[in-house]
Design goal:
The complex is a heterotrimer of chains A (249), B (325) and C (291).
Chain A: E1 4-13, E2 16-26, E3 30-35, H1 42-50, E4 57-62, E5 65-66, H2 72-78, E6 80-82, H3 95-103, H4 108-117, H5 121-136, H6 152-165, E7 170-174, H7 182-198, E8 202-206, H8 210-216, E9 219-224, E10 227-232, H9 234-239, H10 241-248
Parallel strand pairs in A: 3-8, 3-9, 6-7, 7-8
Antiparallel strand pairs in A: 1-2, 1-4, 4-5, 9-10
Helix pairs in contact in A: 3-5, 3-6, 5-6
Chain B: H1 3-18, H2 20-23, H3 28-53, H4 61-77, H5 83-105, H6 110-130, H7 132-135, E1 141-142, E2 150-152, E3 155-157, H8 162-184, H9 187-197, H10 199-204, H11 209-235, E4 237-238, H12 245-259, H13 265-280, H14 284-301, H15 305-317
Antiparallel strand pairs in B: 1-4, 2-3
Helix pairs in contact in B: 3-8, 3-11, 3-12, 3-13, 4-5, 4-6, 4-11, 5-6, 5-11, 8-11, 9-11, 12-13, 12-15
Chain C: H1 2-33, H2 40-58, H3 62-85, H4 92-114, E1 129-132, E2 135-138, H5 139-161, H6 163-173, H7 175-181, H8 185-207, H9 219-232, H10 237-254, H11 263-277
Classes of the chains: A alpha/beta (249), B mainly alpha (325), C mainly alpha (291).
């Protein structure tokens, strides 16, 4: 049973068919890259898998369970979490609170129970883990500072680490390198690899930065005009004439 | 300085409030004003939870207060229910209305959301104003009783006298603020705050945004209902004009000027709203002119309201000890 | 029956004209600044009071009073745009709250200055009558319809055929594109705001002699204007005209079937219905929920 299985996914916006027919199978844990020229449908695919949009047809299966068309909050609870290309964090909250919030149980029952019992054990419990993760990305000194004070690159790391703490089965990273200082890209790539080493899950990374993704991912999926064009190792994909044509043509 | 002083101040204020009937014995109108402050503060707490903490700009809030008020009025006068049962029923009724109306409103964002809430506030007011058989229409619903006297051992406490009703009002207000505190400083409160800051992000972190918005709307409108019941029992009359669009705007004013998204905001706002004309010895119209102007100025220059101003003042006056906050 | 219907139709056209004036002002401001100006009702009220003031205190001429009131509203509009709305650009919530503050400020200022009671404003046109078959209408009634028609036509021509009018239309469609093309967006904003206020002022000055001049006289027109632009479509100028007219006529005709108490509720229910069934109104663009 594959961890993530996408079959026949299609999505049109008005007259524009963003996804024609997308199918692929991600059997087991790994860092997977999703690349393709502009307009290939990468963002729409991400949105469909994460629950941000509902596909017109096709199926998304998570460990054998049909999660097609589920809203994003249900997807998140089922184990598909994502980061955003524009990088979203809770700007008013401290870095620590950002991470703790991601780990906090979101069900209404749990929240009401906590409201009444005033239990804070779970937060104390997670604090240690949250601080450890912040140290991994060298943000421990900012633990009590509002996220608004961070630089863009630091916010990117905060977003990723917050998403990581909830331990998703499928971790969707939307252009993590975009907007990040080239000098920090090595840190970022190392961090993603370290996260993967700690918890081997499915990391699906959309990227435009070829150098970044080719050195990070083991398996690359290439999209073009709403379909999967090719799939293979970084070396195979980089040598493929079809891929080259898609980008240049 | 710092937190311990804040606690002491808080306790002093609480002590003053609890002993108010004795130090206002010479000037009963001050006690009357304190009752009014409680009556205005309670719906403001509800709106603060909705607008201040969750980011839901509801412009028809007093419609819910009116619904609660008239539900209780009809139950107490026509069906001869006791105040307490009527209060309970009215709270549930306004809470339910909040759920139903909220679910319709949440399909919208931005402007549209505000307009729908306004429209529902207007609709509720129109019903109060025109459904003569039940609400007695524009003329108002007179004859609303105070709560029936309570038996306490050998003592009989009636709610006719001002000090006795004051304790009822104060008790309900403190309850409202306690609820606000419990919600805000909890996981639920953190979720509401996340919804306000970035709804999309909250969703991607597993928050069922629609559900939580509905919960806060239910809570906020229930609180409005409590305020409404208290008001009409105090004044012994219910009038549609107390729950119209302008009153909803006044409630927004109380929340914003007091400090939206702060625990003390509704109290400060209500204090100013009721107290200012007395202190400045102004005619009613000028009070609202000043308030309108204040609302504009606060929005422009001090968006955190009075609570924000006071807390920056506090921070200026108390230098940090040892550097940590 | 036909006569009663005709009477209500003409009443509807008149009320519709008033709603159109309010709606037009609101849609201009919304198009250019993406803000629903909730204070539009009090600006209407100010039009009534200032018209009354100029008529009684300054000159005895109704047309002149209207012109002076409108010019005052223009000045007020510019002050409001520069002082209140522009500093809050980009923050919808605060702009709306500030406009609520303006409602309280202006409405109560009027009470403080002129008293809470309604004022009677007698003007010649309400005393002259026009005979239409069996029906009789005051010149004022018909005058409102005619003036609105003229203003709408003038505005339409202005927006379509003048350079500045085109600049306004361009800015409504896309502020970024307008900046790129070199349109002075700031100027377009404050002048559109002023224009919107002027239209509200005309409405108030026209309605004042007809009913009464009182502090809350703009509250209901605000809602009717809102309903009108929702029906017509939030960014659409022709929509505002058609929406306002449909609302006015529907309300008047409804008094033949429904108790008059509920006449105003038609607008409220229409607002909710439009938002639920067709949020973009008749002519607006489909919006995926503003954020």
């Amino acid at each position: 049973m594959s961890i993530l299985q996408v079959s026949g996914l299609a999505k049109a916006y008005g007259g524009i068919r963003a996804l024609e027919e997308v199918s692929f199978d991600i059997a087991g844990p790994g860092i997977y890259g999703l690349i393709g020229p502009n307009g290939a449908g990468k963002t729409t695919l991400f949105d469909a898998v994460a629950g941000t949009v509902k596909p017109d047809s096709g199926r998304v299966m998570l460990q054998g369970q049909d999660v097609t068309g589920w809203p994003s909050h249900r997807m998140a609870r089922a184990g598909i979490s994502r980061t955003f290309q524009e990088c979203r964090v809770l700007a008013e909250e401290s870095c620590l609170d950002n991470v703790l919030f991601a780990a906090q149980p979101k069900g209404l029952g749990a929240s009401v129970r906590q409201l009444i019992t005033r239990a804070s054990g779970h937060r104390r419990h997670l604090r240690e883990e949250a601080m450890r993760l912040l140290s991994m990305v060298r943000l421990q000194d900012y633990a009590h500072q509002p996220a608004a004070l961070l630089s863009f690159g630091q916010r990117r790391l905060l977003e990723i680490v917050s998403t990581f703490i909830s331990s998703p089965e499928v971790f969707l990273l939307d252009e993590p390198a975009s907007g990040v200082n080239p000098a920090l890209l090595v840190v970022l790539a190392d961090f993603i690899s370290a996260m993967y080493a700690e918890r081997p899950r499915v990391f699906l990374v959309v990227e435009h930065n070829m150098e970044f993704i080719m050195s990070l991912a083991q398996d690359i999926i290439v999209m073009h005009q709403g379909r999967v064009l090719e799939r293979g190792t970084p070396a195979q994909v980089q040598a493929s004439p079809a891929v080259m044509e898609a980008y240049l043509g | 300085m710092g937190r311990s002083l804040l606690w002491v101040l808080g306790l002093l204020v609480l002590a003053a409030l609890l002993s108010a009937p004795s130090w206002t014995a010479e000037q009963p109108y001050v006690l009357h004003m304190l009752v009014l402050m409680c009556i205005f503060a309670i719906p403001a707490v509800g709106l603060n939870l909705m607008l201040g903490y969750s980011g839901l700009v509801s412009l028809g809030h007093m419609g819910f207060a009116g619904l609660g008020a008239y539900t209780a009025a009809v139950l107490m006068v026509d069906a001869r229910w006791s105040f307490w049962s009527a209060l309970g029923a009215a709270t549930i009724a306004s809470g339910l209305a909040g759920v139903c109306i909220g679910l319709i409103c949440f399909r919208f964002r931005g402007h549209f959301f505000m307009i729908v809430t306004l429209a529902f506030g207007l609709l509720l007011h129109a019903v109060m104003n025109n459904w003569d058989e039940v609400t007695r229409g524009a003329a108002g619903f007179a004859g609303i009783p105070r709560p029936r006297p309570l038996q306490w051992g050998d003592e009989v406490i009636s709610f006719g006298p001002l000090p006795h009703f004051y304790y009822l009002a104060l008790g309900l207000a403190l309850l409202a603020f306690a609820v606000q505190y419990l919600v805000v400083r909890s996981d639920l409160g953190r979720i509401l705050s996340a919804i306000r800051q970035d709804e999309r992000l909250a969703r991607s972190r597993g928050v069922d945004v629609l559900l939580y918005k509905t919960v806060v709307f239910a809570l906020g409108s229930a609180l409005a209902g409590v305020g409404g019941v208290l008001q009409v029992s105090f004044l012994r009359v219910a009038a549609p004009a107390s729950f119209n669009m302008l009153e909803s705007i006044n409630t927004v004013l109380i929340v914003i000027v007091g400090g939206a998204g702060s625990l003390m905001g509704p109290a400060l706002g209500a204090l100013l709203y009721v107290g200012l004309p007395e202190w400045l010895r102004l005619a009613n119209e000028w009070r609202l002119v000043i308030f309108g102007g204040l609302l504009v100025l606060i929005t422009l220059f001090a968006p955190a309201g009075l609570a924000g101003l006071l807390s920056s003042l506090w921070r200026r006056l108390s230098p940090p000890r040892g550097g940590s906050s | 029956m036909g006569e009663v219907l005709l009477e209500q139709l003409i009443n509807g056209l008149m009320m519709g004209s008033v709603y159109v004036l309010v709606a037009l002002g609101m849609v201009l401001i919304y198009g250019v600044m993406h803000v629903v100006n909730f204070a539009h009702g009090v600006l209407f009220t100010l039009g009534g009071y200032l018209g009354y003031f100029f008529y009684h205190r300054v000159f005895d001429s109704y047309p002149l009073a209207i012109v002076l009131a409108v010019l005052s509203l223009a000045v007020i509009g510019v002050l409001l745009e520069r002082g209140v709305f522009r500093p809050l650009t980009g923050n919808l919530r605060n702009q709306v709250i500030a406009s609520l503050g303006l409602i309280l400020f202006l409405e109560n200022l009027v009470v403080a200055l002129w008293g809470p009671n309604a004022l009677q404003w007698k003007v010649a046109t309400t005393e002259h009558w026009v005979q239409l078959g069996e029906l009789r209408f005051s010149l004022h009634h018909l005058g409102i319809i005619v003036v609105t028609l003229l203003l709408v036509t003038a505005l339409g021509l202005f927006l379509k055929y003048t350079r500045f009018g085109t600049a306004i239309r361009a800015t409504s469609q896309s502020q970024e594109a307008a900046i790129v093309v070199g349109i002075p967006v700031r100027t377009v904003q404050w002048s559109s705001f002023a224009l919107g206020c002027m239209l509200a002022g005309v409405g108030g000055a026209l309605v004042g002699p007809l009913f009464l001049v009182f502090p809350q006289m703009g509250d209901v027109p605000l809602i009717k204007g809102l309903a009108g632009i929702l029906l017509g479509g939030m960014g659409s100028v022709p929509g505002a005209v058609i929406g306002g007219m449909i609302l006015g006529v529907t309300e008047s005709v409804s008094t033949l079937f429904l108790p008059t108490d509920y006449r105003d509720s038609i607008a409220f229910m229409m607002m909710v219905a439009i938002l639920l069934l067709r949020p973009q109104g008749l002519f607006g663009q489909r919006m995926r929920g503003e954020d």
